[in-house]
Amino acid sequence: MKKIILLCIMFALLFISLFPMLSMFYTSVIPSGTLTKVVKERYINDFETKYVSYLQRKVKGENINLVDDSPNSTTSLAAIGRVELLTDKLDVRVAKYIEFWVKGSGNFSVEIIDAFGGKYTENFTAQPEWKKFTIKQKGIKDIDLRYVSKFAFNFEDGKEFLLDDVKLVYRFPTLLNYVNVLKEDMFSRYILNSLIVSVIVVAGNLIFSTMVGYAFARRRFWGKNILFSLILSTMMIPPQVTIIPVFMLMKKLGWIDTYLALTIPMLVTPFNIFLLKQYIEQLPIELEEAAYVDGASTMQIVFKIVFPLSRPSLAVMGINTFISTWNDLFYPLIVTNSREMRTAQVGLAMYQKLNQIDWPRLMAASSIIGLPVIIMFLLFQKQIISGVTKGAVKG
After folding, report:
1. In the chain, helix, strand, coil percent, each to 5?
2. Tens digit of pLDDT for each residue in 142-175?
3. Cα separation of 146 and 54, whole Å?
4. Closest to 101 in 3D by CA, of 66, 65, 129
5. Model pTM?
6. How far apart are CA 179 and CA 146, in angstroms?
7. Domain final position from 123, 156, 174
8. Integer CA distances (angstroms), 322 to 24, 103, 259, 310, 325, in order
9. Which of 148, 174, 200 is the last residue before a domain boundary?
10. What is the C-alpha R_g of the chain?
């Protein structure tokens, strides 16, 4: 019984820890709405009003009136001739189909018009009783579905038709939010920039931090302990304190808004030096002494003996460096000016300002940015665990 209770508690804690990530992915595939309220359809007009004067703000037509006859509610629109339903630049891409009800005798056509004058027309035949009609989104051509401004119903001359419940039925779930994010903004460029910067910074730390850590672990020189203490003390300085002198240096070197400014200052970090020093000190020094006897140079020992033996620690360092570099917002925001040089986190922050209400797109953008980090952790989680358990930190 105790084991069952313990397992239940563990699964509950696991669910709580994963809930933010799961909610992010769930919200990213909904057509509209939020996590707690998914909007699966949107009414363009259901004509549920008592006043024709109020209705005419969104409906244009010479012979229109309201009648108490409807397939699903109480009121519908009676019209002769042409009726136009105005929209506020409606995005139809996420719709599965357009649905509406018509009652009458004769033929009619529906025009979907975008904000740039493009028009798509489809013909129908009404029945004496209420009948539901649909227009599939995939069949709509020759218009910009992002900016639909008007739906026009052309009814047969001289005959009265009833119209009701014009709405969009959304796809759910949908991957269109991801497509829109990648197409409408430069997220592919942002991700490429972050990959380039992260790979360069990780490679630099793997090489240079290991060499510095090896020097502190194996070499004897004057002021070694004082210098190492100074390196560790820099870990306690907030980055906000050093950002101004770093920015001024990058500006004098002419590196602002370049990959050099994003990578060079990050090629060696104090924590990685500390991590490698502590790990290398636990390696058997006899292997290095034997290599010296065989005529190996210091660089050969570092790259052919120390590097292979330090794989668990290097894995921890590489993954942590990749994640921290990928998730860095403050420094890239300071040293970049153009959209072409923005990293993923900067691009996401700017995108959030423009789409504060559109939660599905925001979550889709966040998922795109967070996916590489999740993949990295899942691929190298064994190395992280082995690096910690094998003494990546001396103790």
Report:
1. 55, 20, 25
2. 899 989 999 999 998 888 899 999 999 999 888 8
3. 27
4. 129
5. 0.78
6. 13
7. 174
8. 22, 62, 16, 18, 5
9. 174
10. 32
